[in-house]
Protein backbone atom coordinates (compact mmCIF):
# COMPACT_ATOMS: atom_id res chain seq x y z
CA UNK A 1 0.00 0.00 0.00
CA UNK A 2 2.93 2.35 0.57
CA UNK A 3 3.61 2.56 -3.13
CA UNK A 4 0.11 3.99 -3.66
CA UNK A 5 0.26 6.43 -0.74
CA UNK A 6 1.17 9.35 -3.04
CA UNK A 7 -2.35 9.19 -4.50
CA UNK A 8 -3.71 10.65 -1.25
CA UNK A 9 -1.57 13.76 -1.48
CA UNK A 10 -3.50 17.02 -2.06
CA UNK A 11 -2.16 17.59 -5.59
CA UNK A 12 -3.20 14.11 -6.72
CA UNK A 13 -6.60 14.38 -5.05
CA UNK A 14 -7.13 17.70 -6.84
CA UNK A 15 -6.16 16.06 -10.14
CA UNK A 16 -8.71 13.27 -9.50
CA UNK A 17 -11.44 15.84 -8.89
CA UNK A 18 -10.59 17.84 -12.02
CA UNK A 19 -10.46 14.78 -14.30
CA UNK A 20 -13.65 13.24 -12.94
CA UNK A 21 -15.48 16.59 -13.11
CA UNK A 22 -14.33 17.06 -16.71
CA UNK A 23 -15.48 13.56 -17.70
CA UNK A 24 -18.84 14.15 -15.98
CA UNK A 25 -19.30 17.42 -17.85
CA UNK A 26 -18.43 15.74 -21.15
CA UNK A 27 -21.07 13.02 -20.73
CA UNK A 28 -23.84 15.03 -19.06
CA UNK A 29 -23.51 18.57 -20.46
CA UNK A 30 -21.15 19.11 -23.40
CA UNK A 31 -21.91 16.03 -25.51
CA UNK A 32 -25.71 16.21 -24.97
CA UNK A 33 -25.60 19.93 -25.80
CA UNK A 34 -23.96 19.34 -29.19
CA UNK A 35 -25.99 16.20 -29.96
CA UNK A 36 -29.17 18.07 -29.06
CA UNK A 37 -28.25 20.86 -31.49
CA UNK A 38 -27.61 18.22 -34.16
CA UNK A 39 -31.02 16.67 -33.53
CA UNK A 40 -32.73 20.05 -33.72
CA UNK A 41 -30.88 21.01 -36.92
CA UNK A 42 -31.66 17.67 -38.58
CA UNK A 43 -35.33 18.02 -37.61
CA UNK A 44 -35.52 21.54 -39.04
CA UNK A 45 -33.77 20.48 -42.25
CA UNK A 46 -36.28 17.67 -42.74
CA UNK A 47 -39.21 20.00 -42.07
CA UNK A 48 -37.88 22.68 -44.44
CA UNK A 49 -37.26 20.13 -47.20
CA UNK A 50 -40.77 18.72 -46.80
CA UNK A 51 -42.33 22.20 -46.85
CA UNK A 52 -40.76 23.11 -50.19
CA UNK A 53 -42.94 20.66 -52.10
CA UNK A 54 -46.06 20.75 -49.91
CA UNK A 55 -49.07 22.92 -50.75
CA UNK A 56 -50.19 25.56 -48.24
CA UNK A 57 -52.95 24.52 -45.84
CA UNK A 58 -55.43 26.64 -43.87
CA UNK A 59 -53.97 27.84 -40.61
CA UNK A 60 -57.00 26.63 -38.65
CA UNK A 61 -56.25 23.04 -39.72
CA UNK A 62 -53.01 23.07 -37.70
CA UNK A 63 -53.84 25.78 -35.12
CA UNK A 64 -57.56 25.27 -34.48
CA UNK A 65 -57.65 26.86 -31.00
CA UNK A 66 -56.16 29.84 -29.22
CA UNK A 67 -53.88 27.66 -27.11
CA UNK A 68 -52.75 25.50 -30.07
CA UNK A 69 -49.16 24.98 -31.21
CA UNK A 70 -47.78 22.87 -34.04
CA UNK A 71 -44.15 21.84 -33.43
CA UNK A 72 -44.43 18.93 -35.88
CA UNK A 73 -45.53 21.31 -38.65
CA UNK A 74 -42.76 23.88 -38.35
CA UNK A 75 -41.86 25.60 -41.64
CA UNK A 76 -45.04 24.28 -43.31
CA UNK A 77 -46.79 26.95 -45.38
CA UNK A 78 -50.22 28.04 -44.22
CA UNK A 79 -52.81 30.58 -45.32
CA UNK A 80 -54.95 32.72 -43.06
CA UNK A 81 -57.58 35.41 -43.50
CA UNK A 82 -58.06 38.07 -40.84
CA UNK A 83 -56.77 41.44 -39.76
CA UNK A 84 -53.60 42.82 -38.23
CA UNK A 85 -53.61 44.32 -34.73
CA UNK A 86 -50.98 47.09 -35.08
CA UNK A 87 -51.73 48.49 -31.63
CA UNK A 88 -50.09 45.37 -30.14
CA UNK A 89 -47.03 45.41 -32.42
CA UNK A 90 -43.51 44.77 -31.05
CA UNK A 91 -40.05 44.44 -32.61
CA UNK A 92 -37.43 41.78 -31.95
CA UNK A 93 -33.97 43.31 -31.57
CA UNK A 94 -30.45 41.91 -32.02
CA UNK A 95 -31.43 39.79 -35.01
CA UNK A 96 -29.17 38.82 -37.91
CA UNK A 97 -30.18 38.50 -41.56
CA UNK A 98 -27.51 37.35 -44.02
CA UNK A 99 -24.89 38.32 -41.46
CA UNK A 100 -26.17 41.88 -41.01
CA UNK A 101 -27.89 43.27 -37.88
CA UNK A 102 -31.63 43.72 -38.16
CA UNK A 103 -34.90 44.15 -36.31
CA UNK A 104 -37.86 41.83 -36.98
CA UNK A 105 -41.35 43.34 -36.80
CA UNK A 106 -43.94 41.22 -34.95
CA UNK A 107 -47.64 42.01 -35.28
CA UNK A 108 -50.57 39.98 -33.88
CA UNK A 109 -53.03 38.77 -36.52
CA UNK A 110 -56.64 37.90 -35.62
CA UNK A 111 -57.69 34.99 -37.84
CA UNK A 112 -61.34 34.83 -38.90
CA UNK A 113 -63.02 32.02 -36.96
CA UNK A 114 -59.63 31.05 -35.55
CA UNK A 115 -56.94 32.04 -33.08
CA UNK A 116 -54.91 35.22 -32.87
CA UNK A 117 -51.36 34.48 -33.96
CA UNK A 118 -48.13 36.44 -33.88
CA UNK A 119 -46.90 37.27 -37.40
CA UNK A 120 -43.26 38.02 -38.17
CA UNK A 121 -43.75 40.55 -40.98
CA UNK A 122 -40.04 40.55 -41.86
CA UNK A 123 -36.98 42.60 -41.08
CA UNK A 124 -35.79 46.20 -41.21
CA UNK A 125 -32.16 47.34 -41.03
CA UNK A 126 -31.09 49.69 -38.19
CA UNK A 127 -30.11 53.26 -38.98
CA UNK A 128 -27.34 55.39 -37.47
CA UNK A 129 -25.86 52.52 -35.55
CA UNK A 130 -28.60 50.68 -33.71
CA UNK A 131 -31.56 53.06 -34.08
CA UNK A 132 -34.86 51.51 -35.12
CA UNK A 133 -35.87 52.94 -38.53
CA UNK A 134 -39.34 53.93 -39.61
CA UNK A 135 -41.24 51.17 -41.41
CA UNK A 136 -44.61 50.74 -43.08
CA UNK A 137 -47.66 49.96 -40.98
CA UNK A 138 -49.65 46.82 -41.77
CA UNK A 139 -52.73 47.23 -43.98
CA UNK A 140 -56.07 47.79 -42.31
CA UNK A 141 -59.12 45.65 -42.85
CA UNK A 142 -59.34 42.00 -43.79
CA UNK A 143 -56.44 40.48 -45.71
CA UNK A 144 -55.26 36.98 -46.63
CA UNK A 145 -51.66 36.07 -45.92
CA UNK A 146 -49.38 33.12 -46.63
CA UNK A 147 -46.67 32.30 -44.12
CA UNK A 148 -44.58 29.55 -42.61
CA UNK A 149 -45.29 28.09 -39.19
CA UNK A 150 -42.50 28.60 -36.67
CA UNK A 151 -41.84 27.28 -33.19
CA UNK A 152 -41.63 29.76 -30.34
CA UNK A 153 -38.09 30.74 -29.42
CA UNK A 154 -36.93 30.35 -25.81
CA UNK A 155 -37.20 33.51 -23.76
CA UNK A 156 -33.82 35.25 -23.52
CA UNK A 157 -32.75 34.92 -19.89
CA UNK A 158 -31.91 38.14 -18.09
CA UNK A 159 -33.13 40.33 -20.96
CA UNK A 160 -36.46 41.92 -20.18
CA UNK A 161 -38.67 43.63 -22.79
CA UNK A 162 -38.44 47.42 -22.85
CA UNK A 163 -39.69 50.39 -24.84
CA UNK A 164 -37.37 52.49 -27.00
CA UNK A 165 -37.51 54.44 -30.28
CA UNK A 166 -41.29 54.55 -29.97
CA UNK A 167 -41.71 50.75 -30.05
CA UNK A 168 -41.98 47.89 -27.58
CA UNK A 169 -38.87 45.73 -28.01
CA UNK A 170 -38.12 42.11 -27.11
CA UNK A 171 -35.07 39.88 -27.44
CA UNK A 172 -36.77 36.68 -28.64
CA UNK A 173 -39.79 35.73 -30.72
CA UNK A 174 -41.84 34.07 -28.03
CA UNK A 175 -45.64 34.42 -28.34
CA UNK A 176 -46.09 33.80 -24.62
CA UNK A 177 -43.82 36.69 -23.67
CA UNK A 178 -45.30 38.97 -26.34
CA UNK A 179 -48.77 38.11 -25.04
CA UNK A 180 -47.73 39.16 -21.53
CA UNK A 181 -46.26 42.42 -22.82
CA UNK A 182 -49.19 43.38 -25.07
CA UNK A 183 -52.09 41.76 -23.23
CA UNK A 184 -53.24 40.03 -26.45
CA UNK A 185 -53.72 36.22 -26.21
CA UNK A 186 -51.59 34.45 -28.84
CA UNK A 187 -51.30 30.89 -30.13
CA UNK A 188 -48.18 28.92 -29.20
CA UNK A 189 -46.63 28.92 -32.69
CA UNK A 190 -46.04 32.04 -34.77
CA UNK A 191 -46.01 32.82 -38.50
CA UNK A 192 -43.18 34.05 -40.71
CA UNK A 193 -44.42 35.77 -43.87
CA UNK A 194 -43.22 34.59 -47.27
CA UNK A 195 -42.55 36.96 -50.17
CA UNK A 196 -45.12 39.42 -51.58
CA UNK A 197 -47.61 39.34 -48.69
CA UNK A 198 -49.85 42.10 -47.29
CA UNK A 199 -47.91 43.84 -44.53
CA UNK A 200 -44.65 42.16 -45.51
CA UNK A 201 -41.29 43.87 -44.99
CA UNK A 202 -37.83 42.45 -45.73
CA UNK A 203 -38.25 38.72 -46.43
CA UNK A 204 -36.38 36.50 -43.98
CA UNK A 205 -34.54 33.80 -45.97
CA UNK A 206 -34.84 30.12 -45.19
CA UNK A 207 -31.91 28.58 -43.30
CA UNK A 208 -29.37 26.65 -45.33
CA UNK A 209 -29.95 22.90 -45.28
CA UNK A 210 -26.67 22.16 -43.55
CA UNK A 211 -26.36 19.71 -40.68
CA UNK A 212 -23.36 21.61 -39.32
CA UNK A 213 -20.55 20.22 -37.16
CA UNK A 214 -22.69 19.45 -34.10
CA UNK A 215 -22.63 15.63 -34.47
CA UNK A 216 -18.84 15.51 -34.78
CA UNK A 217 -18.49 17.90 -31.83
CA UNK A 218 -20.76 15.68 -29.72
CA UNK A 219 -18.71 12.59 -30.58
CA UNK A 220 -15.52 14.47 -29.75
CA UNK A 221 -16.80 15.40 -26.29
CA UNK A 222 -17.73 11.74 -25.66
CA UNK A 223 -14.22 10.73 -26.72
CA UNK A 224 -12.69 13.35 -24.41
CA UNK A 225 -14.80 12.02 -21.54
CA UNK A 226 -13.43 8.52 -22.15
CA UNK A 227 -9.82 9.55 -22.72
CA UNK A 228 -9.52 11.73 -19.60
CA UNK A 229 -9.85 8.87 -17.02
CA UNK A 230 -7.68 6.60 -19.19
CA UNK A 231 -5.01 9.29 -19.31
CA UNK A 232 -5.19 9.68 -15.54
CA UNK A 233 -4.70 5.92 -15.12
CA UNK A 234 -1.70 6.03 -17.45
CA UNK A 235 -0.05 8.79 -15.43
CA UNK A 236 -0.65 6.90 -12.18
CA UNK A 237 1.00 3.74 -13.54
CA UNK A 238 3.88 5.81 -14.95
CA UNK A 239 4.34 7.50 -11.54
CA UNK A 240 4.42 4.14 -9.72
CA UNK A 241 7.05 2.79 -12.14
CA UNK A 242 9.14 5.94 -11.79
CA UNK A 243 9.03 5.67 -8.00
CA UNK A 244 10.11 2.03 -8.20
CA UNK A 245 13.09 2.91 -10.39
CA UNK A 246 14.05 5.77 -8.07
CA UNK A 247 13.84 3.50 -5.03
CA UNK A 248 15.97 0.86 -6.71
CA UNK A 249 18.59 3.45 -7.74
CA UNK A 250 18.87 4.82 -4.18
CA UNK A 251 19.08 1.44 -2.43
CA UNK A 252 22.58 0.62 -0.84
CA UNK A 253 24.62 -1.90 -2.81
CA UNK A 254 25.25 -5.32 -1.16
CA UNK A 255 28.91 -6.44 -1.49
CA UNK A 256 29.31 -9.41 -3.75
CA UNK A 257 30.23 -12.65 -1.95
CA UNK A 258 33.78 -14.06 -2.58
CA UNK A 259 33.60 -17.49 -4.18
CA UNK A 260 34.65 -20.29 -1.81
CA UNK A 261 37.50 -22.63 -2.56
CA UNK A 262 37.01 -26.39 -2.53
CA UNK A 263 38.78 -26.68 0.82
CA UNK A 264 36.57 -23.97 2.39
CA UNK A 265 33.49 -25.74 1.16
CA UNK A 266 34.73 -29.03 2.80
CA UNK A 267 35.53 -27.17 6.01
CA UNK A 268 32.10 -25.65 6.12
CA UNK A 269 30.58 -29.03 5.46
CA UNK A 270 32.40 -30.81 8.29
CA UNK A 271 32.42 -27.86 10.69
CA UNK A 272 36.14 -27.21 10.57
CA UNK A 273 38.55 -25.04 8.58
CA UNK A 274 42.15 -25.93 7.72
Automatic annotation (TrEMBL):
According to Swiss-Prot or TrEMBL, what is its membrane topology? Answer: Multi-pass membrane protein
User: Region annotation Disordered: residue ranges?
Assistant: 247-274
Q: Which InterPro entries match?
A: Surf1/Shy1, Surf1/Surf4
Q: What coarse category fits the chief subcellular location reported for this protein?
A: membrane
A GO-annotated cellular component: plasma membrane
Regions of compositional bias (Low complexity) in chain numbering: 249-261
The residue ranges crossing the membrane are: 12-33, 214-237
Residue ranges annotated as compositionally biased, kind Basic and acidic residues, are: 262-274
Under Pfam families, the record lists:
SURF1
Q: Where in the cell is it found?
A: Cell membrane; Membrane
Keywords, A to Z, come to: Cell membrane, Membrane, Transmembrane, Transmembrane helix
Note whether Manganese occurs among the keywords: no
What domain of life is recorded for the organism? Bacteria
PANTHER family linked: SURFEIT LOCUS PROTEIN, SURFEIT LOCUS PROTEIN 1
Similarity comment text for this entry: Belongs to the SURF1 family.
Q: What is this protein called?
A: SURF1-like protein
Amino acid sequence: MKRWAFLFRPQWLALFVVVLAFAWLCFTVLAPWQLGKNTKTSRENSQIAASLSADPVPLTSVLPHQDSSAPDQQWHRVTATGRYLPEAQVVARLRSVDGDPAYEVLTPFAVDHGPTVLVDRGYVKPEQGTALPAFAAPPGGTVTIEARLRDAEPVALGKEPFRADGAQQVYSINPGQVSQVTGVPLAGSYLQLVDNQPGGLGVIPLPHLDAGPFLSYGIQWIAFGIIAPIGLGYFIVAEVKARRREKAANAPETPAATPQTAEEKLADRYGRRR
